[in-house]
Amino acid sequence: MIARHSYEQTENGEGVETIINAPCEDPVHGKGQFTEKRIHLSNRLPYWVQAIIPKLFYIIEKSWNYYPFTITEYTCSFIPKLSVTIHTKFEDNPGTTENCLGLTGEKLVERIVDFVDVAYDEVSPKHYKEEEDLKFFQSKKTMRGPLPENWKNTTSPIMCSYKVVEASFEVWGIQSKAEEYIQKTIREILLLGHRQAFAWIDDWISMTIADVRTYECEMQRKTNTKVNACVTDAEAGENPKTLDGEGGGGGLKSPKSFSPLTNLFSPSSSSSSPGQNNTSWFSW
């Protein structure tokens, strides 16, 4: 459903381009899937951000999915002081685990808990679709839904996606504004994406893992075509070496904006584990 969401959000050369989608393995978390993507979004950024970035701008996303645990990193070669890291863990409960991702010390003290309700939090009007409104939606295959007001305490089965979102943008003068914008943007994406994950249940509930991989490949091929059809024209005359560098980054430095997100429905040219190469900002 991430692949389908990415396809729907891609148009006019802006959206999500998949570079790598391959198996990976970690000594702690076991076997998983690594993806690397480029998120092209120059024209979707507020004007105060567009004023300080090149016209051809993309964010690098690297994600390691060891279900039920995932790690996602975002960086940008043009803005080396930008870094976002999202740690996720899925549990079969309505968001009742107090410290699901095991935060300790200073991080636990400074965290802000934000409960994201996929049924009753409002999405942006431009993204609203009645058929994806979980207050009214009912699955034909499972008969799950619609979700009543107290759905978190009455619905079964139920899953919570626990997330810790750390955003750092250490640029004097706009740091706080930029980090607040990043957190707000990620929340909106997670709300819309997880609403769709449930509303599209009849499309994926019968899939095997082989079906998933086949579907991902086809959707990613179509999405890459939509992105590259416009990006290629825009890049004419540019030096590609200035576009592909992954420099900068280098991990988080005392993140100023820190927020675990809870109550959400629902992997560079190398698939090395995160931390070995912190050069990567939207898988859930």
TrEMBL record:
Domain Phosphatidylinositol transfer protein N-terminal positions: 1-220
Biased composition (Low complexity): 257-284
One GO cellular component term noted in the UniProt record for this chain: cell periphery
Region entry Disordered, spans: 237-284
InterPro entries: PI_transfer, PI_transfer_N, START-like_dom_sf
Organism encoding this protein: Macrosiphum euphorbiae
Gene Ontology MF annotations: phosphatidylinositol binding; phosphatidylinositol transfer activity
Name of this chain's protein: Phosphatidylinositol transfer protein N-terminal domain-containing protein
Alphabetized Pfam families for the sequence: IP_trans
